[in-house]
Design goal:
Blueprint: H1 3-11, H2 20-28, H3 31-38, H4 43-50, H5 55-64, H6 67-75, H7 79-88, H8 91-100, H9 103-109, H10 115-125, E1 142-144, H11 149-159, E2 168-172, E3 178-183, H12 184-189, H13 196-199, E4 207-208, H14 213-222, E5 227-231, E6 237-242, H15 243-261, H16 275-292, H17 294-302, H18 304-309, H19 313-341, H20 349-379, H21 381-411, H22 421-444
Parallel strand pairs: 1-2, 4-5
Antiparallel strand pairs: 2-3, 5-6
Helix pairs in contact: 3-5, 5-7, 8-10, 14-15, 17-22, 19-20, 19-21, 19-22, 20-21, 21-22
């Protein structure tokens, strides 16, 4: 059976509600693949598919659904049915769903949950969306340092089913303060009477519940961790960040940065976005950049006499200012990525910009040689010298702008991705116009 056949079966009104063939097919599919199919179906059809799965499997599929699909499906099912599903979900996924629901949906859902589940959801959902607390889960196992290896393994056997991971378990004291972590492998291979205190590692790479979630996700990637412990201000263990949640953060942040680099707001679902939504996501930046480009027009107007005397200069204007903008966009893209991944720190700015000047000078000279040949052929040696000199300086200045803006925005505690390609291009264009016609005026007017 295929997904096409599944779709045809759903359209058959007289088909059996739980056909074995459909059940066998969807039980063999990965939850992520099945969620991708379910997300494209109306809520009623989506629930018909979910009905073919056992409840734990339903929770897995539901956790992979986009937030919009989760909300639509939650709105189309009875409260007790949704409560049973939410109970099976991971703690962090429950909190994410809760944040997406409307106030009416929350009020309908919470009474159907146990008190412990309600308190856990409210606690996890209370953290700001950009903090570690917003992505951590409370489904984790802990051990005491005085336990033996045998006792620790027995405890993990009893708790494993309800926890997201037990491959590395965190060790706490009597006040729940984090003191270390121990690998399941070490517990399994250790002598039966070996104490957890002797097997654990004390460097846990813990993060605070209020830390930035992107920095925590980078730490998970940097140290190849399966999970990262989260502590409160007193050092007490309050949750963990699993590697899959960390990768989701990395992907989401990269998507947001990509949209900012393109000077647009993030659109959650491009295919289903309305015309007005797409318009609203892009128009603000475009209007700002329109007014920013006025400076380029003002520069051209200021050098009107030079342009009138040497009309051939206009032929090279698009070529020169585009080169500066392109060079700046390249530098900005490289720098935004390096800052986002932690490869470059704020105190590296002087060395990075110094190196960029040398790289830009080499690129500018190479481009100057090419454009000078066109200049000689098109307008003569004098114009060729002006164009070649301008090319070198414009590429250097554009590259410096593209390199420096992300550093400046980071220093001001703003997102460096705001140094988007259109913004860098607009600034580099205005600078290029001024450089080009200033050099032309200084070099050509004495000859008049």
């Amino acid at each position: 059976m295929s997904y096409d056949q599944l779709g045809l079966a759903l359209k058959e009104r007289d088909a059996a509600p739980h056909p074995e063939e459909l059940r066998d097919f969807i039980e063999q599919e990965h939850p992520a693949d099945l969620a991708n199919y379910v997300a494209d179906r109306p809520p009623q059809d989506a629930w018909r598919i979910m009905d073919l799965l056992p409840l734990p499997r339903q929770a897995q599929v539901f956790g992979y659904l986009p937030p919009d699909s989760q909300v639509d499906m939650a709105d189309a099912v009875a409260r007790d049915r949704l409560a049973r599903l939410v109970t099976e979900m991971n703690a962090d996924e429950r909190a994410d769903l809760y944040n997406e629901l409307s106030e009416d949906q929350r009020c309908a859902l919470l009474p159907a949950l146990t008190q412990a589940e309600r308190e856990d959801i409210r606690r996890l959902a209370s953290y700001p969306s950009d903090t570690v607390g917003a992505i951590m889960t409370s489904d984790y196992a802990v051990l005491k340092a005085e336990l033996s290896a045998t006792e620790a393994l027995q405890k993990l056997r009893q708790e494993a089913l309800d926890q997201e991971t037990i491959y590395r378990t965190y060790v706490i004291d009597s006040d729940r303060r984090l003191i270390g972590s121990v690998r399941l492998q070490d517990l399994f291979l250790a002598p039966a009477r070996a104490r957890v205190a002797d097997l654990m590692e004390r460097n846990t790479h813990a993060v605070s519940v209020t830390d930035d979630r992107e920095e925590a996700a980078q730490r998970v990637a940097r140290y190849d961790l399966l999970a990262l412990p989260v502590v409160d201000a007193e050092g007490r263990l309050v949750g963990i960040i699993t590697h899959d949640d960390a990768m989701d953060v990395v992907q989401e942040e990269a998507t947001e940065d990509f949209h900012r680099v393109g000077a647009s707001k993030m659109v959650r679902n491009m295919r289903d976005a309305s015309v007005f939504m797409l318009y609203r996501a892009r128009i603000v930046w475009l209007l700002l950049l329109v007014f920013g480009n006025i400076f380029s027009g003002a520069g051209i107007a200021y050098f009107e006499d030079t342009i009138t005397a040497y009309v051939a200069l206009v032929f090279f204007l698009p070529l020169l200012i585009d080169s500066g903008g392109n060079a700046g966009s390249q530098s900005a893209t490289l720098m935004v990525r390096s800052l986002a991944t932690g490869e470059v720190q704020l105190n590296d700015w002087s060395w990075m910009i110094g190196r960029e000047v040398m790289v830009a000078a080499l690129m500018g000279l190479s481009m100057a040689v090419a454009v000078s040949l066109i200049g000689i052929f098109r307008a003569g040696p004098e114009i060729a010298v002006v164009v070649a000199t301008s090319m070198v300086l414009i590429v250097i200045v554009g590259s410096i702008i593209g390199m420096a803006l992300p550093f400046l925005l980071t220093k001001l505690n703003l997102d460096p991705a705001t140094a988007s390609a259109p913004l860098v291009t607009s600034i580099a264009d205005a600078a290029g116009v001024l450089i080009y016609f200033a050099i032309a005026t200084a070099f050509l007017f004495p000859a008049i």
